[in-house]
């Protein structure tokens, strides 16, 4: 089924009497085709810089596409990525005003992320691109199972273990947007390796 994610998410917000100015993925996508979800940290200040934004290119893609390239993938646009069955979103739907994101803001957005994940019935992989995404999915899982999906610990120590949320394989990895990823080459390498594993699982 093809849906417009932004419109579907706005309807969900309205039905729950929420009034925040959230940002959602402005994309039409075949929900049946999506096999993997990549959850980034937070939406950008300018919606047109998001993964599906109209800027040429959107800022978030300038650091994301090279990760796919380093993973040995020929996916070179957001259209290629979605056609390959990969949906990219952000855990926090409100732009951050400080260098860190407050816990209350993360919690506020968790019901939105949980609903968003539920839109895709055939997902077999979820990639948690950074600690905020990890916290958000852990909160969703704990409310259902009383257990975290990803245990406490450094990502580089956890990323080679196997974790599951229900029947979905979960990869803890590193944030794929913003200036930090341009500097920390070791995290770029590890995130690319994780993406390569994801691609192998869904192909």
TrEMBL record:
<dbReference type="InterPro" id="IPR036895">
    <property type="entry name" value="Uracil-DNA_glycosylase-like_sf"/>
</dbReference>
<dbReference type="Pfam" id="PF03167">
    <property type="entry name" value="UDG"/>
</dbReference>
<protein>
    <submittedName>
        <fullName>Uracil-DNA glycosylase</fullName>
    </submittedName>
</protein>
<feature type="domain" description="Uracil-DNA glycosylase-like">
    <location>
        <begin position="61"/>
        <end position="153"/>
    </location>
</feature>
<dbReference type="InterPro" id="IPR005122">
    <property type="entry name" value="Uracil-DNA_glycosylase-like"/>
</dbReference>
């Amino acid at each position: 089924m093809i849906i417009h994610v932004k419109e579907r998410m706005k309807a969900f917000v309205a039905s729950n009497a929420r009034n925040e100015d959230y940002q959602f993925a402005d994309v039409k996508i075949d929900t049946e085709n999506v096999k993997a979800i990549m959850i980034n940290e937070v939406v950008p200040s300018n919606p047109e810089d998001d993964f599906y934004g109209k800027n040429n290119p959107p800022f978030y893609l300038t650091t994301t596409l090279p990760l796919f390239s380093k993973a040995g993938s020929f996916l070179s646009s957001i259209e290629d990525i979605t056609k390959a069955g990969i949906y990219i979103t952000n855990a926090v739907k409100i732009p951050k005003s400080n260098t860190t994101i407050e816990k209350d803001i993360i919690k506020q957005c968790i019901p939105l992320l949980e609903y968003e994940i539920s839109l895709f019935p055939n997902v077999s992989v979820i990639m948690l691109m950074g600690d905020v995404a990890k916290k958000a999915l852990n909160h969703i899982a704990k409310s259902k199972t009383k257990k975290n999906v990803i245990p406490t610990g450094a990502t580089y120590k956890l990323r080679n273990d196997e974790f599951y949320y229900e029947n979905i394989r979960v990869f803890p990895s590193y944030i794929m947007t913003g200036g930090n990823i341009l500097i920390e080459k070791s995290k770029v390498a590890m995130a690319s390796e994780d993406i390569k594993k994801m691609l192998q699982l869904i192909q």
